[in-house]
Every structure is written in C-alpha cells, then in structure tokens.
Batch of 2 targets.
Target 1
Amino acid sequence: MIKNIGYIVFILLGAACSSEKDEYVPIDKNPKLEFSIPSNFPEPSYNVSLNPPTEKGFELGKKLFYDGRLSSDGVISCGFCHIQDFAFTHHTHIVSHGVNGALGTRNAQPLHNLAFMKEFTWDGAAIHLDLQPIIPITAEVEMNESFSSILQKLEEQPEYVTLFGEAFEDQKINSENLLKALSQFMIMMISSNSKYDRIERNEGSVFTSDEAVGFELFTSKCASCHAGTLFTDQSYRNNGLPVDPQYNDIGRNRVTGLVSDLYKFKVPTLRNIELTFPYMHDGRLKTLKDVLDHYSDGMIDSETLDPVFKKTDGTVAGIPMTEEEKQQIISFLKTLTDDNFVNDNRFSEF
Amino acid sequence: MNKFTLIILAIITIISCKDDDPNIVEIDNTPKFGTLNINFNNKVVGDLVTLNTGSYTNLSNETYTISELKYIISNIVLVKENGDEFTYPVANSYFLINEEVPSSKQVTLSNIDASIYTKIKFGVGVDQSNYPLNGVANFIPTAEESGMLWSWSAGYKFLKFEGSFTPQGGTTGDFLLHIGSHGEVLDNYKEVTLDLSSTLIIGDQTTSELSINADVSKIFDSTNTYSLEQKSDVQVDPVNAPILAENISTMFTTINEIPN
C-alpha cells in the first residue's frame, strides 16, 4: 500500500503541475565539463565558477566559433583567422582578413590558455574574455556584423534554438549567452602538453643539449618579459619596432590615451610560437630568426622604448646574441610546440 | 484507499501547486509592487534641447549647437525613507537615453517595492568593475545600434555629445565628445545620487512618475570649466575625459513627481 501511494503521489504531482514552465531539462542532459588546471600553470584569471563549461555550452561555443553567420557576409567565422593547425592563428597571413577581402591592421593572435590571461588583444582593448569577441565581430575590417543581426540569424536556425535551450537555464538566444558559450569553448582550449611542459612537470622528457643551452639563454635574455610558464608577464611594451607608416599603429595608446603607452603592445605568450608565424603585432617578421635578429640588431630608439633594451647611458642595447646562441634559443622555443593541442579533435571544426 | 491516504494526497497536491491555485486565500502580507516611469528631460539651463537648430552659449563665450546627445544610465537604486535600498535588477537596468528618440527618454521600471522613497541613485555609463556580474552583455545590441560601442575596443561610450561651435571671434568648427572608460586604466563610470524634491510614492499596481532633468550646459560649466577651444575632439583622452565625466555627473536634478 505504502509503495502504491508513493506512485500515486508522484503521478498527482506530475499531473497537477504540468504547466508550461515545468519543462525541466534533466541535469545529466547537459553535464559539466571538467576544467582542469595543469599542475605547472597558475590559477586562472577567468572566474570559471561564473560560467562553468558544460557539454552543450561548449558544443554551442564551438559551433558559433566556426559559423560564418557571425559575420556580415556569412563567410568569415572566428575560425577563419584562427586556424587550429597553427595554434589558432592565420597561417602566413600578415594581418587579419575580414569580410569582402578587407584587411585588418594586426596579426591574428593565437588562441590558447585564454582562461589564464587578464586582458585580450594586442593592446588590451578587452578587459574580459567574455567581451573580447565584440571587437572582431563588430570591426568593419573583420566580421563587420552587429549582435542584433547575429541573434536574428541564429533565431532562424532550429539547431541553435535547441542548443541555446540545452546549454543555458534561461534557454534564451541573447548576447550574454552567445558570449558565454564562446568563452566556454575558448577556456577549454588549454595547451599544456609541449615537450617543455613534460620537462617542467618531470614527466620523463629531457632537453637536447642545444635546447638546454637555449633554455639557459632564454632565461637570462628573454624571460624577464616572457615570464613564467605562460611565457608572458602580460604587460605592454615597446620592443623597438620601427613604426610602419602604412598602419601607424599607436598600440596601447589607443586604449588608454596615455602618451606613455604609445607604440606599446602586449608581450605575447610564446607557447606554440613555432607555428604562429608571421610574428609581431603586424606580422612583419616571417621567421623566429628574423625576430631574434630584430632583438639583436634591429631595434630603433623612441620615447617609449622599453628601458630593458637600453644601456645605462640611454642608448639602445637590444639583446646581444651570437648566431649560434640564436639557433640554440630557437631550438628551445620549438619545445613549446604542443602537437596534442593542435590535433585535439575537441577543438576541430570537423 | 483509506481516508487518511486521500487527505494526504489532497494536501500534497495542493501544496505542490500553491502558486498556481487561485482558490488558496493568502494572508495579505504579499509583497506589493508598482511601476515607475522616469522621464529624462535634456535641457540647456532652463530650455529643452532642440537638436541642430537650438543655439546656446557656454561660460567660455562659445556658441554651440547640438547634433547628437546620447548617454547610458545604469544601476538604478531607489532609497526608502528609512535608508533601505531597492536595487532594480542590474541586468535590466541599462538604458540608453537618446535625445533624438522620444521613447528612449522615458524609462519604465516595473515590480518596484511599494514604498515611500526619498532618493534615487544611478550610474552614468557602465560599471565594468564587477564584470561579468554586471549583466551588461544583453545591452550590447542597444548600444551598438546607437553607436555607443567603440569599434576597436570592447568598452562602451558612456556619453556622446556632438555638434558645432564658434568661439568668440573665432571660426565655426565641429565638436565631438565621447566619454567612456579606458580599459582598466581609467574608469570614467560615475554614480549619481539625487535627493527627490518631494517623496516618491510607489503604490501597489500603480504607476508613478519621476522626472529627471539633465542640464547639458553643465558638461562645459560645472565643477570644471571646459572650453571647446581648448579641445573639441575628446575620445580616448586621459586628461580631458575625466574632467568632462566629472561635469557630466553633476548635470542631473530631479523635479516634481506627479503622484499617481
């Protein structure tokens, strides 16, 4: 009898409350994804608890990332300029390409370990990962699209209606959920399985002699800015590139308006640097050798040139390196390549 | 099934559907909520702004006309007589006031605690300090349609004030003042607290009205004196943007509320 009452109560409850708002999505339909911090990494800057990645949120974010509907011509997706094989950069393209063949002014940055970064883009114009996509989406020379138009296009796609409904409690297709889904996809993109990582975590790998010497040289000559296991101190610095009159890119000054920020750019992470050529904010340098040649011999002085590159008398010192040392540093830099990451199917379009 | 069982079933059924069942008589301690319309009147001193044709003079003897006037209001809080605060849901609290669009100048807040209020607090711009808890993402479409996003940055323009001006004895030129925060380096978001000139009563299921005057002449002449001749194009300007932001925060006053 007691058992039967249990069933009846259950049925009555169900029948009595079967109003429209009670379409519960069972929890196991959208399980949380594990966001695990590699043991050699710092704490993330992104507050994962406020937007915990879920299976459906990640799937939605990935679909959006590879969807040309986020651009005005229906072709340029995020993944158009951020190609996984090259650590999500635009292989061989000096500056970003946008709708209708438009050219940007800066080189597409790699996408990995974004949960650990405090600010985004070359000049820090986005102070939160959730905000970053606003820039490429709305920039005329990139995706040239408006959020209202994107949301309207997504509403018309049954798959998106379903996915947004499964991914978010309020089930709404709106900008907040769109940006959160993109972030869920992006924060899962952790690159932490390079040879360097395996050495740092004592997992049995060892440097070759060239790599070992290169690492020593790197530590003494480069690591004051390319610091820590993320290989960036996330500061903005002028590294002595001559100003290209074609762009006259004022760098961080565009965000802060401070004269002291003229021609400063974010110190980029060096993870996967072997794959992310060409280099510098405007992609002007083709190879790692070119980059090191710039640091040893190519810098020009200016008001905001970083003091780290100056001698005590104020003249430009650069980073003195012999040709052999450069090759050794490059050998070390190649240990930062993470093949697992660039081949990880979770992040692939197909 | 015995009586006892039936009674239990009946009770459970009723309890489980309490919210939906009109037959349940509730004791009258239910929260009461009203609606508030806030009307923003953009003025130059005492006169309502007339875009393009109205000619005004600031204290630096510059005559000016206004072609565009927009600003973002956010984080609205009403303060009760006893000091308790009613915080309007932050995510629904972002409004773009655009002089050109009459409907944008009336902001409707619903489900406000029925009570007597003596102060109103709000933000000018977007508080980015607690992003993403500030729920601003869904304001993006409104902001972008009105050109209140910087195209190259992920921030908002808090105020856009454009027109043309003629300095005394000088030649006419355009002015363009776009004030917002500069990344995390400079926060130009301002909070404004206004005493209500008489108490504001929000009744149960009634609509109350409140008017707020925005005297844009204060953008030039208030805490700081700002002449356009000194700089007429202010966008990301770490010197002049804070000066103007401070002035902007002083341009609001409340006037007579009409009791419902």
Target 2
Amino acid sequence: MANYSTNEFKAGLKIMQDGEPCNILENEVVKPGKGQAFNRVRIRKLISGKVVEKTFKSGDSVEGADVIDMDLAYLYNDGEFWHFMNNETFEQLAADAKAVGDMTKWLVEQDVCTLTLWNGNPIAVTPPNFVELEIVETDPGLKGDTAGTGGKPATLSTGAVVRVPLFVQTGEVVKVDTRSGEYVSRVQK
Amino acid sequence: MQLSDNWRPSATLATLKQRAALFRAVRDFFSQRDVLEVDTPLLSRFGVTDLHLGNLTTELQAFPKLPFFLQTSPEYAMKRLVAAHQTSIYQLGKVFRDDLVGRHHNPEFTMLEWYRVGFTMTQLIDEVIALLQLTLGSLPVTQLSYQQAFLQALQLDPLTATVAEIKANLSQHSHVAELSAREDDRDTLLQLAMSVIIEPSFCPKSITVINDFPASQAALAQLCRHDSRVAKRFEVYVGGIELANGYQELTDASQQQQRFEHDNVLRQQHQKPERMADFRLIAALESGFPECAGVALGFDRLLMLQSKKDDIAQVLPFAISCA
C-alpha cells in the first residue's frame, strides 16, 4: 500500500496507525510564522472504533491502509458468519461476529449494507440508514394514544429493542433509524 | 461545457466592507503616529533562508536563468529603507508562502509589517497592543516570557531541560506522545509543545504576549545582553491564534551573515534547496542600521478576529480554493 504525505491528509483518508486501519475524521494544519508546521488529526480506528488525536510533523509520511467500502446485500447468518452478496457480480463475502458487532440487530435479508474491507476482509458492517422490522413483542397499548408520549419498548424480529408509541402493536412492521436506534413510523403492509 | 459555480467570492459583501474599514483604520493609526507607508517589491532576487519558510519562485524574460522570489515578508527590503533613511515605516500588502492551506493559512495573504526606529521591544509590544485594542476592543493582556509559559503549562524549563527531559514531559500528553518519542530535535520538540499544547491553552478572549524566545529560535532578533540563552523576540496571540511576530532587530551585519549561513546548513541537512543570502541586506546593515524594533502582523487573521469568522477564506475576496 502506498504511503501518504501529511500534505495529502484530509477527512476520509485511510491510514495505518498502531497496526490498525484508521479513518481520518479531521485534519488541521498548525504552522507557526517561524518554525516547524504540524498536522493535528482526529482519527477513528476502524477495528476498535476508538477515536484518538495524533500530531504529525508536516512533510512526514504514513502508511496508507487498503480499506474500501462495498455495497452488498445481506443474505443469511449460518451461526458463525453473516453472508453478503454483490448484486451485480453475485460474488459472496462472509463477515464474522467481530466485523458485524451489534449491527446484527439491524440486518434484514436483501437489504444492501456497506461492508468495510481491510486487505479484502470485512472489518465493519454498516446497515442502511432505515430498516423495516416486525414487532414480535410489545405490551398492548391504549387506543387513542398519539405519538409524543414516552412510548413503550418493543422487541423486533432481529432482537433489537426500540421505543415505540403506545398505539403500535405486536405484528406490525415499523421503520427504524439505525444510526440513532429510534422509531420513525409504522409501515403499511 | 459545464460552467463552474465556483466563481463566487469567499467573503460576503459585509465582510469586504469590514475589510476595507480595517485597512483605513490601520492606515489612520500609523498616519497619526507619523509612520511612513511604503510598498517594497514583492518580486525580488532574494528569497528567505529560514528553514521553515517556502518561497514561491518565478522567472522573468528580462533576466533569463535568474530565479526571482515572491516575498514571504517585506522584511529585507524594509530594513534597507530603514538603513537608508533612518525613519519609521510600515507596509500593508500581500505576501506569499508556499505553505499548506488551512483555517488560518492561505498561501497569499496580507501582512502588516512595521519598523520603529529608536523603539525598544517593550515599546513596540505596547504599540501592537494599542493597535489590537483599537481594532478588537479593550481585551485584557497577559505577558509572559517563553520560559514562564512553559513552566506554567508544562512545569518544564525550556532553557535548561535536556532533550530527554522534554521528551519525557511531552510523552504525558497523548496527542503528541508518539511524535515526541520519535523526534530528537530540541527546537522541533519545543515548537511542538508551543503550537499544540501551550498556545491552545491561552485565554480565549485576551491578548497574550510571549517574549524572550530561546536563542536558537532568534530568527532576526538581537540576543539579550544579560542572558544570551534568549533573544529579544516576541509573539502576540489573541486567544490561541498567532497574530504577530516581532524583534528587537539584529543590527550587526556579521551576525546576520552568520545566521543566514547557519540557516543554509540546516537547509542542507533537511534536503531543502539553499537560498542565497541577501547581500544587499547585509550591506545595508553594514552601512549603519539604527537601533529599532519591528513586527509583522497577519492582517487577515486580525479581520477574522474582528469579524468573528473561523476560516480565513471567509475574510478573503477569493481564497486559494477559488483564486
């Protein structure tokens, strides 16, 4: 993988740090009128998810990370791996529990997810921003209640638990924002 | 053909009006103090020897094979005027630095630089503060020596600590720990601490003046007579933003020559092109340069502070991205 000079640093660039692929979130140049320039960067470690701040001397170079994002459709979980397929080439990829993490609760068959690959291996799975899932269990609510009150917990078919308005019942399908884990609306079947 | 929508200015009309008003305020300030406005060449036969400053170079048809340099500051030419006329002068104009682009950096920017014949560093610092309070309001002022600033922020004495002690101190700060572990140059470590730890800790709505920089970072300042470890160099900040850098000017031609040569040794070590020392400046110093103090202040940053903008692009008619 190529090296990158600090001059090429920008948000979104993938570099290796501490043996881990990282994504640059923010890059700021600090250059005194007299003296050495520095790059202050905030990076997210793509495996541990940690966000750290580092400083480089401007002009230094760092190893790039071979990280790409691919859009793949979720197929199934065989108990050990989560299988995805490229809808154009029909090529399949399997992600392990470490890569999927707690995103497993948002995986819906046929939904197109973004898989982050490092050296060809999945290290992270990002579900679509919105998914539709059926409620398998929730307390019966009172009729006539409207959204906006505290709501109640509902367990979805994938095991995810979200707060829904009191009028939403078991068996209904709801739309959920996977970034916040919040209920958006009911979905007409 | 697709037309670019990138033609629009990066500053609003309101900001351009504020920019024009600030130009006027600065000129009034110096006119009232009887300081002469000058406009020295931006295109010169000489570049700057400073290791960390990048000149843009160009060629002229009239002088084939001779490189010409866009000035990073009007310092050398202004000092030749001071030597010739022994009078206080200021310049408000563009300079060019082949630097990175950032929230506080545009490769072409406006510099306000002035030289006060007969002034001490202390008198010039007072004048800088007067200009800042005129344009930014009456901000409180903190003045610290470089040594005091390090002692306060890091409990580290920058004048006596060994390189190992500086590294050990910086290793306690996670965001600079790795860089300080692999860096062994004393001034680079001190500049790292200054730029990344100390400056961001300055009180946000106040003026901070740092004076008496280490002799190794003297640039074109005189060394202190009573303590040769430090130079009569100062920097002025508003919040954590570096605004101005000034000196009790070095008047000794042979010392100036030695500093140029030392700069070029550093340039060689860092695989950077050597820059011919400006022999016209040396000759001007030899002819009898008066005791004086000089300072350079980033005009666009002053406007950023005045108009409360956080990106230099917002105070420039066209930032480099749309120049």
